[in-house]
Amino acid sequence: MNQIERIEQMETYLNESVAAVQALSNALDQYEAVQKSLKKLTSYFGSLKWYKDFEDDEAGKLPKDLKRGVLSEDAVYDLLEEHHELMQRMSRAVTKAIERNMV
Asked: Residue 103 pLDDT more than 80?
């Protein structure tokens, strides 16, 4: 690889890296902003209020046009599982970055 090709390749690496870091920063901002909501959702799911809402839904007591994904047992559980896996993934990514002396 000659000098021009090397510089062009490094410029590509720079641009890709800047875009990825910015995207991650934006995603982290969104993630941090939703933490209170996630905590409230976690507390609600499986609580007595959730069971009451679930039972009322099953009994047809709630409006038909009411969005009720939160009452499906899978939607919240899947979110919490994905959240847990994401935490582990981020932990591994940070550990690898530290091991590579990139932080």
From this structure: no
Calculated CA dihedral for residues 11, 29, 31, 97, nearest 10 degrees: 40
Tell me how far the alpha carbon of residue 87 is from its chain's centroid. 9
Q: Is 54 exposed, middle or buried (0-12, 13-18, 19+ CB in 10 A)?
A: middle
Residue type at 45 in one-letter notation: F
Residues 86, 27: Cα–Cα separation, whole Å = 12
Q: What is the pTM of this model?
A: 0.75
- Please report, for residues 30, 32, 41, 86, 90, the alpha-carbon distance to residue 27 in angstroms, rounded to integers and kept in the order given: 5, 9, 20, 12, 12
